[in-house]
Amino acid sequence: xxxxxxASHDGIPHNKVMVIGAVISLVSLYIAIIGTTLGVDYLAFxxxxxxxxxxxxxxxxIKKLCSYGIGTGVxxxxxxxxxxGVIALLFASTLSGISIWIVPVAALILGxxxxxxxxxxxxxxxxxxxxxxxxxLAELAAVGSLALMGLGAVATGxxxxxxxxxFDLLGVTVYNASYLGAGIIAVSFMLGAIALQHPFNACxxxxxxxxxxxxxxxxxxxxxxxxxAVISFAFVSLIAAWIxxxxxxxxxxVSYVKYVALSKRDAASWLDAKxxxxxEE
Amino acid sequence: MSAIAAKPGANAxxxxxxxxxxxxxxxxxxxxxxxxxGSAGILAGGAMPVLQTLCLIIxxxxxxxxxxxxxxxxxxxxxxxxxxGIATGVAMLATGAGLAxxxxxxxxxxxxxxxxxxxxxxxxxxxxxxxxxxxNISYVFGMGIPAASGKVLKDPITGDLQAAYKSQGxxxxxxxxxxxxxxxxxGLFGGLGGTLIYIELLNFYNVGxxxxxxVGAEGINMLAVGLAxxxxxxxxxxxxxxxxxxxxxxxxxxxxxxxxRFPRAIVAAILASAVCGLVAMLVVALF
Lengths: 281, 287
What we know:
heterodimer; A: mainly alpha; 9 helices; 68% helix; B: mainly alpha; two-stranded antiparallel sheet; 8 helices; 2 strands; elongated; disordered N terminus
């Protein structure tokens, strides 16, 4: 149950990745919030950068957690992260009634608190006895909450509860077409959860390299951001949505090319199978 | 941490009395906190409705945790025909069954609590029944293997002998009748629990959102539906994954020795849902 198998231990230590990811995420969220307080929404794409920062952090945590055999597969960790993260996120977003500036930090702290409960339950009540379990689940809940907030900021340009729960339709405030009311948060939930659990699940094994897994995490983050940027055409101004979309597509293309290059580097051999070959016979 | 020191002990499946008592006490404290938040007017609707909402959320979570243990989860070995069960993880299966039930129940939410709960339970059970049938069709006609359990000599329901059909070197394969029945029961409980959480949160938000100042516009019910839906999905995933951690991978169904671990998962679900439920209810708190 708790036998550690060796994941790669090359490269940057986990604590450093965690700090880098959290700082990228929080700073990007604050830049997006500065945009909304200034009344401009073309800084919304920084939400996607925030989600990617959180995903890099969460990816490193998942690598640490899943190097112990948890028996349920890597995807379960991603689902748990976003399941607890969405609860922390929505409560944190209601704190925008007090001040918009505390929302990202509140999401981080609330995620850690909810995750600490779940980690303690797994380790003590369920007797998992994995040394990093409590800390990992706390981190994952915070990651889920920050990544969801980032994806939501891309789609709507806002992080506050009132702003994501209402939608201004030709001067009339409606609820059923908003980010929450129309259920778009469920889309970002799944996009984020898959982007969180996929990289390590795809790269794990004896040949796993940290830079390749991280590049895949970045690629998955931009891929999720593309979808949220398309959705954002309904919520933010046209120019802001185009900025988000172009940033996401360029980021995805660059990270995809880099990921393929890293995969070729780590592969024993490489055969281009040419799926669309012109041979007819 | 060395691998040797962290080897699983013989009591990996044992009930943990002290942490369980602490967990229950913590859950009771959270329920009491919710009661006082309700009576202080911070949570809309008064003390008793708040108490009822949180208690029924906890009941729904306990039902989910219990139901997950019925579902025959095979994991990767089942995909190779070396273990009985459906060839994917607990989290995916329970989510599929539970969300199918939740959507069924959400559709029927306006027809009253009883109809909604029944359609949620039937939705989950139907989803699992179809999954189990298709899994057996692909096992029997696609992979050419009979259904046989490795954990029991005779099927507890039909009395069919299992050992004669079990291939050497495997733990059984396919979905024997008892696993099929377990899957349907698991879907039933999962759908019921998920729908209960959803309906309770929906009713709570329908009261709480107008108190928060969301008035005068169309579609306030849609906002409550969206909020309750995403919270029910989130809580469902948390409970399902915690139950999956309890099972640690694969289970054949109610006849599996691992099934006896379910009290732990219920205790875990009670505390986890008390925490998540209270935070979810605080979303409409009046600060």
